[in-house]
Each structure stands twice: as C-alpha cells, then as structure tokens.
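Here we describe the complex-level prediction in full. Unlike the single-chain runs in Section 2.1, the two entities below were treated as one system.
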Amino acid sequence: MMASVPSARVGAGVETIDTPALVIDLDAMERNLRRMAEFARAHRVALRPHAKMHKSVDLARRQLAAGAVGVCVQKTAEAEVMADGGIDDIFLSNQVVSVSKLARVATVAHRLARRGGRLSIAVDSPLGIELLSGAMAAVDIDIDVFVEIDVGQGRCGVAPGEPALALARRIAAAPKLRFGGLQAYHGGAQHVRAVQDRRERIARVVAAVGRTQAVLAAAGLRAPLVTGAGTGTFALEAASGVFGELQAGSYLFMDADYALNERASDQPEFEHALFVKTQVVSVADDHAVCDAGHKAHAVDSGLPRVWQREIEVVACSDEAATLRGATLPQLGEALWLIPGHCDPTVNLHDAMVGVRGGLAGGVVERIVNVDARGALS
Amino acid sequence: MMASVPSARVGAGVETIDTPALVIDLDAMERNLRRMAEFARAHRVALRPHAKMHKSVDLARRQLAAGAVGVCVQKTAEAEVMADGGIDDIFLSNQVVSVSKLARVATVAHRLARRGGRLSIAVDSPLGIELLSGAMAAVDIDIDVFVEIDVGQGRCGVAPGEPALALARRIAAAPKLRFGGLQAYHGGAQHVRAVQDRRERIARVVAAVGRTQAVLAAAGLRAPLVTGAGTGTFALEAASGVFGELQAGSYLFMDADYALNERASDQPEFEHALFVKTQVVSVADDHAVCDAGHKAHAVDSGLPRVWQREIEVVACSDEAATLRGATLPQLGEALWLIPGHCDPTVNLHDAMVGVRGGLAGGVVERIVNVDARGALS
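The structure predicted for the assembly as a whole is:
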C-alpha cells in the first residue's frame, strides 16, 4: 500500500518529511536502548523487550545486539513476523486457545528449533494446555510453557498459589510441554503516577509470585524463570530478586502517558523518541488545526502533547487535532506531537522515519518498517 | 503485509473466520445503502458519501451504483486511492496547504478531468487559495473550490457571512479556481443524543449558511451548492432547503456511538453492519478476556458493545478486551463486537470479511479491501 508510506527520502532534511508521519529521533532512541541494556546488565536480570510495541524486526535486532535475550510478542501473527525476520528467541506472552492458531504456533516453534532458537508461550487454562500439547505433538518438539498468574491486573491469568500449581502440574504431565516458569505482569501498575503507589502494587506482585513459588516448591516443582514488568515498574521487579526477566517495551520510544509517571530515583530516565510530524492546516482566532488525528496517533491513553511549544492539543478527530495556546502556530507550520500511547500509534503506520541529528536540522537516516502492523491474529 | 489479512476463505462458513477480524454483514449493509439512497432521492438532495469511513473502492462503487453523485475524502492520499480505483467524482472536504500535496491534488484533478470526472476541494484561507491556484496553473485545468465555514464545530472553516464572502471573492478572482459553494459540516452535532438538541444545532447551522448566502447574493456571488451533514443529522440538512448535498458516511456500517442517538421520526433507521469477530481466550471467576483490543477496534468514541449477548466490555487494552456479565462466555467461544467508532476501526484493518446470510450460519461472500488504509497524507 504505497499510499500509507510516509513521504520521506533517506538523506533528505527533516523539513522535507511529508505530514503526518511517524518519526523516530534515532539519537534519543539509541540512548534509551543503551540505558535499559545497561540497567539490565547492572541488575543481572535478562531483558526481553516487548515487540508488540514497535512491531519492527529492525528494532528487535538492535535490542538483541544490545544484549536482549529475545523478544516478547502478544499475537501468533507477530511471532510469525519476528521469526520471518530472523529473530530466534520469541516468547508469546499471551493466551492462545484456537486450534488453527496453535498449529501456527507449533510451526513457528518448529522453525525456530531447527535453527537453534525457540518459541515459548504462556497459558492460563487446562484447555490451553491440552490444545497446545496436541499442536506440539504434530511437529514433535518440546515447548517451554509459562503459567500466567493474575498479579492484580484483572485480565488474563489464574490466581497465584494453588491454581498456578495445578496448571504447572498439568504442563509437566502433558506431552511435548515443559514447565518454563511464571508470567506475572501487572499492566495497570505501569501507569500509576506516584512512585510510592507503584512500589506498593509491585510489592503485592512480588508477594504473589513468592507465594506461588513456595507452593510450587512444596510440591517439588520449581519455576525456572519469572518473567514480567513494564516500562513503569521494571526497576522494582528487577530489585525484587524473584524476577529473572523484564519485558518492558515502551522505554525505547516513551510516550506522553508514561512521561506523566513520577520517576523513581533508581529508574533510568528515558527520552521521548517517537513523534508525529504534523502540519497546521487551519488557523482561526482562538484555535488552530493540524493534519494528524486519531488515524495518525492513538488517543486511548490521552491526547498527544506538542513538543517544545506552548500549545496544547485540546481535541482530536479522525484526521485532525485542534490546538490552543497563548500564541497560535502559523498556517502551514510543522509541529511535532508526542503520542499519548506509543504501541497503538505505531500500529497505525506502515513505516517510521528514522531521523539523525534531531528534529530541528536533522536528516532522514533510514525508514524503519512496522513489519507486524495489523498482525492481529 | 500478509500477516494483517484476516484468515477468511470465500465460500466458507462464518465459524471458520479467524479472530480478530473485521466483518461486514452484507445484507444489513445493503439495506443501509438502499435506505440512504432512497432517502436522498425522495428528498431531492444529492448524496456524496464520505469515503474516509470505509476507505474502500469496492464500497464507493456500490454507493455510486445506488445513486450517489460521487464521494468525499478527507486526505489527498485518499483522493489518489479513489481515483486509482476508478471513482470519477471526488470532493476533498478538507484543508490542504502544503505545496507538495497540492501538486498531487492537481495531478488527481488532471487525471479525473481527462476521463470526464472531476476533483473539487475545500479551502478556508487566502494562503490555501493562493497555493491551490498555483498548483492548478501547472496542470492548466480549473477546479471547483468550496469555502469551508465554521458552523459550530470549532475546527476548520472561516466564520459565516463576510469572511466567507472575502474568500469566495478571492476564489472567483484566482486563476484556475471556480467558486463551487459552501462546505458546512457540524461534526459535533452528529453525536448529540436528543433529537431536539440536534434540531437546535442544525437550525443554527442552516441560519449561518442562509446568512452567508445572503451576503454572497448581495455581492453578486452565488453559492452553486451547499454541501455537508453526517449520519446523525442529515435528515435536518435535507429538510432545510439550503443543503444540496449530503456527506454522511457512517450510515453504511453504523457504530455503537451513533446507535446511542435518539432517532428522529423523519430519519431512516440503519442497522449495525460492521462487527469485530473475537474469541474468548481467558475466563476467570468474575470476568473473561477476548482477543480484540484497541489495535482491532477504535475506542476514541467509547468501548465496543457485544452483539446480542448480556455481556459488557468493561475495559480495553492493546490486544484484549475485558468482559463482564451475569453469565460469562465460554473459553474459546466466538463473540461479535460492535465497534464504538467505525471510521478509525476500519483504518486498523487491511481488509474486511463480507458475510452473506447473517453472523450466525452465514458464509463468506467476498473480501473487501480497505484500499486507503493508512492513507494519511
């Protein structure tokens, strides 16, 4: 679909990028990449960034090159795209209970195993275990399976403790499945603003994981790995001593919503690295309108912010955002929006424009494809 | 991007459609199509449906076959896609003030003119007029230009009356531009729930248009056409006597948000025709989770509704929706969601699955491509 590729030419100046376009400040992104990699190394915890955020093979490779052990994905189709792109260690951190999808899961697992990699997956139900075991039997290889426990998010996952043990036992007993450990992610805690409130939530997460580990140990089962955490709380999970792996994804780009979190002193600082370049197409007495609406950036976590200008986005429609401020922008002027939520914003675009040298005066270094855009199934 | 095409096979039963998938109930859609076409004929008003909603050449052609005079688009890239697809009469009902985009506008206008069609466009600024006139000079053809007036939406458009006259005069005086009339759309009024409140808003719209027409007439300029209206209010604009053309788009699919409007007795009833098929992937004591989050349906106008079940969507995340109800669905069960807002939902998908014979027991009749998905520029 040519129509959806932003008009940007490698080597051209930032001012030539057509609008609206999703733009990566590569310098800022690489600093974020390094800071998180250094944090994980310093805290002796594995980093498995969530590729559901960027959906890009190119960026996954750069995360691996910086020390990540693999990537997480949330959808079977994302696993397929990442495997196609040469990513060898993929964790599907979500529930799959469809026979046709599990056949695809098994195919990916088989492909990765043949080249020395692996696919692992989460479950939270006996049915999920039974169907997965059947699918893996067809390709005749083993798969690491993580029991997802609900640590406060109220979404997927069984209760910590005995219910988790029951599933772990079923996994251990099921042909072709190996008990890999626990998936314990509290999505809601990521966006709790105050440091102290996040500490309390993650303390409860850690307690729930510890209780589950104790129940498993008492039954003679050990959880080889506990995996979870996101950009809002990863320093707490890393410090807990029970999490062996961090799944944060948004740290690479940061968004307007995460920037509202009070930052803990023990957490590295990340910079905004993802922007929507937009043009002002209409100016009235008391407001202006730019050409990026919620088909260009997702508003599920709030409206975007305008970068380094005293202008506020006050409303959004499909193809436009309405702006107010003491000094309105000029008709035709370019502005840069910081999306409210990076994951669904990236999913609106087929490609991102990678800029080197900053948003003012930089040049287009490369186009980063959103390989798994729309990979929903 | 193969990964994003829903797994549906023409001729197969509805139950075989992989999830999440965007599905059209073709029978319901065709009834909506006929009802709106009949309404426009009966009220002697032209129908120019907004193709920003479905972004599909196939559906635009069916609207034309049922009597529509052409389509509206909101983006230059959408005009290109529709022109590529053989649509001959396109109105770009939005502001374009970029030199490179206006060169593309002129190219589309030139292509359409050569085959006996036409592109028309809205403006709301002297700069827009000047740049457009320059772009049209390069291809040496005339274009119909509509002055957009702000009739209460507070987005694009000049004030009604004298400011509109000033722009109309500039258009009439500018090389290659013809004054086509007024673009007068009140987006906010579409979603006002009570019939009486919508009546009052559109009465003010009609008064503003009438005032502008009087000012134009006093200056010896006539607005050949007034175009506007949406699915929430079109019966009021049609009855006004001043609107010659209706731009409604959502009537074809209807969404959960529009269904909350109190229906006026003089307005045809439209049925939900767009659904997201989703599978339940996790069931807990008090909630269940399905596999369609806000990467599969847009939540900017509220959460989706579950079709014909006593189950409520209570939360949405990127890849999941959380469900509650007195009776929870079964693990693995398929559900049908009515999206909160059809336009940005369609834009998330590369294709829609057209089903004949209903969501229960029907078969896949055809795949409808979302040709202009991501056509943002």
